[in-house]
């Protein structure tokens, strides 16, 4: 996992905030008035270390060992267990690489792996084992990826992902999208990012100017799993993103001990709406090695969504989704059964 952010941002406030992120699990627990000796911490997390921005830490409840935000980031020894069916490439990313750093899974859209850096390291991340050094679109690999997009007029949407694309400097983002804007058949730019949720300082004037300058449709897919992740600063950052004209959506992952209750999911949907974001997906956990302790059974997920649908208007009920390697689209558990 690449954890260094772009050098061009070193002097900017969001980069300084990121540089102060907590990286020691024991320090994190002590800051929360929790005894590290009471936790079965991972002793083999060097390849995917803890990373938690200060602002995200402040949203955790001191003294609560089961805090849903803490659970998402704390490396536990459970990650070292071998679990049947869990792999290092759970969604078939490498098999779908049209070029290094360019994934072409579904018709009409491609995904650029722009960086391996993230503002936070989520323990359930489906790309926690991804070979970023050789599979990120940078330098000559980026040029090859752009040539591929340019040569295929069926590609109407380009997704910037990673890692997290907002780990890149505004200058690098502008250089990339400037090239994409010159490709006539690219109609939509989509960003998949968790950074505004965990590091809202990233949403500054330069970033907003860059996104506002994109000349066509834009979609920002955020990643929040729990209502308490969306505090006032995050809500303000998200509303600023909406002011660029981008469509804002959220994708969450259903995680045991984090959001696997109807109450937690309802609170998340309502908090998202208050910030101007529509729930989009609720993903079943991708079976990535090291994350089996987060799994929620599919039948439980269906029951949760059915109950949620009885409580909320349809636009606040996310679509249950599962990515299947090699499939032509995501799988929608329960979709056929729910048809009239």
What does the model show?
- The chain has helices at 13-19, 25-31, 54-57, 68-73, 132-135, 140-151, 170-181, 195-198, 205-212, 232-242, 262-274, 298-311, and strands at residues 97-99, 102-103, 109-113, 157-161, 188-193, 217-222, 247-253, 278-283, 319-321.
- It has a nine-stranded mixed beta sheet with strand order 1-2-3-4-5-6-7-8-9.
- Helix content is 30%, strand content 13%.
- The N and C termini lie far apart (46 Å).
- It has two domains: 7-80, no CATH class; 94-321, Alpha-Beta Barrel (TIM Barrel), CATH 3.20.20.
- The chain is an alpha/beta fold and 340 residues long.
- The chain-level mean pLDDT equals 93
- How many strand elements? 9
Q: Count structural domains.
A: 2
What is the oligomeric state here?
A: single chain
Strand/helix succession: HHHHEEEHHEHEHHEHEHEHE
Largest sheet: 9 strands, mixed
The computed structural class is alpha/beta
CATH topology group of the largest domain: TIM Barrel
Percentage of residues assigned to helices: 25-40%
CATH homologous superfamily designation of the largest domain: Aldolase class I
Number of helices: 12
Any idea what the CATH architecture of the largest domain is? Alpha-Beta Barrel
Q: Termini separation (Å)?
A: 46 Å
Q: How is the largest sheet built, in terms of strand order?
A: 1-2-3-4-5-6-7-8-9
Radius of gyration: 19 Å
The coarse silhouette is globular
- Percent of sequence in beta strands: 5-15%
Name of the top-level CATH class of the largest domain: Alpha Beta
